[in-house]
Amino acid sequence: MSFLQPLALIALPLITLPILIHLINQQRHRTLPWGAMMFLMSAKRMSKGMAQLRHLLIMLMRMLAVGTLVFVVSRPLAGGWLGCVGLGKVNVTLILLDRSASMEMTDLQTGESKRSAALKKVAQLLEQSGYGTHLILIDSTNGQAHKVDSPKALLNLPMTEATATSTDIPGMFESAIAYLKANNSGRADLWICSDLNEHDWQPDSGRWAAVREEFSQLEGTHHFLLAYADRPSSNLSVSVENVRQRKSSSGAELIFDVAVQAEARNSGERRVPIEFEVNNIRSVVELELETWGASLQGHRIPIDARLSSGWGSVRLPGDVNPLDNRFFFVFSEPPVRSAVIVSDDARIGEAFRRALAIPAEAGLQHRIDVIPVARVGEIDWENTGLLIWQAPLSQGNIAEQIESFVNTGRSVLFFPPIQSSSNPRLVKDSDSSEHLFGSRWGGWQTPEQELSKITWWRGDADLLANVDSGNALPLNELRTYRYCNLETPGTTLARYGDDNPMLTRMATDRGGVYFCSTLPTAQFSSLERDGVVFYVMLHRALAEGCRSLAVTSQRDAGASVFADRDQWEVVEPAAEDAPTLSQRGLHAGVYRDDKYWAAVNRSRAEDSTKVTPIATVDELFDGLSYRRIDVAVGDTSALASEIWRTFLVAMGLALIVEAVLSLPSKRAEQKSLGDFTIAGRSGN
Alpha-carbon distance 163 to 193, whole Å? Predict the structure, then answer.
């Protein structure tokens, strides 16, 4: 129980007031023996036990009345979870509000989403119980701290509105720690409002240990988690992939894939209409929905052959989450996919060129150039999507150009250097001491036969992911005869039987940086001979790097989504529904800057129904002052409510009971007085 006026509890000792009055009254009357009272005393002794019990109950009722009056004045709040609220004056209250797309799951009866309901509950509680000197909101879109004037103001701020973004929960805690340390805030309450989406919470992240350590050093910090972990049973979400514009002699058309995802608890089969909109022209297709959802592969929509670019969207009927019912896309004529191979070995360079020369899809154009290291200055960096570097790692200006190339969203594949293929003296450690992207080549190794196989690779994402049918790439059939040691902080995508990496990826903000520790020709591996893995790996890297060459792009909503250009204008939604300038990158829609188009949507991870287990969440706060409040989206009750009226009723009942118990005592006094009068007259 918590109290809005806790200082009033100082008056609780007043419940002893009836006892004090009783003791004082006893001292006021002296007892004198009087023969005429003999009969009265005798009668009183006969009913002494019942009288004492009645007097004791009367005393308790008077004490209860005084005690409940004190509680009425202190204004108590109901809610057993409020265990540590009100135990001391809070200096600052921080609100960590999850504004991700999944938080917009709405209760259709109340019209409240998880986000809006959580915000109202917290604002109402803080209005009642207080929030200290400062009220701070941590924005989930960028981690910035904003000072808020009052809890009511939280309901109308742009920083608390719905967005199509994902949330970095550990990052929000890191921002809270930075604020508390920078301001020496003292006692602080942290309110976290979230739906426990596993992608947002990242429970396996190593940052949580550091977060716990930092908070353990901040005394007087309490954490309150308002958890909306329930998932809808009938929600559908839609997404679009592989948008392609294709022209032929008969006209032009758009080709793309549509995926409809259903919640895991969805059961039964039904048909769902999907509305397609391309440049304001609409059409509808019905899909048969299965338990897991539905998919539409290679859907075709005819378009005007004169169009060089445009936009479209796919829409589902309304359901409990409006933010995942529409997905935007943009299209344009595909650019020439350009790759440059840097190698002083003609045979190795030709192996790369042959693999990249044949387009993976009809209608695409490839331009592949093979140049020696001495001609690196001829590279057209602006129009190149993929760089394959099979040479010693460069330093100086070339290294800076490669890093700038990656920062524009392009891809680089590094392969180990050799001096000559006709007389293959492999480069030694001392010949390749240069570092690039934190990595360096070591010495060459010849593994034993059983260790030359690829024993593990990442099949769920990146260059070696399973194909569209779900089948894995045949990496287990590859053989490696020689590989180069690699020192790198990157993430391993494939490894040999001796645990050395075959392919790694470096963490970058935009582009892709990969290191492959062997070469494709027969004296090093079977990559070129077997072909499939080599072809798929290179073409995926080429497609990834060439996305930045196109005038259209698909982007996940985020605070920095438009960092590459300054003049983006909203095309869809309409002007009256368009977000403010500061919030544009946080909302789904279509944007344009001259010839460039961008479709912004929620991250696919926001469609996931996977919730972080409650036990796992509790472990993340192990050792900290922490309370979890589990709430459902349709729950409109307040987090805490004043119950002084209950105590007022209790006080009234106590006074009534005291009055009823006092009635027999007064009658007995009157009867005793009557008996005394009769006895006196008889004596006379």
Answer: 15
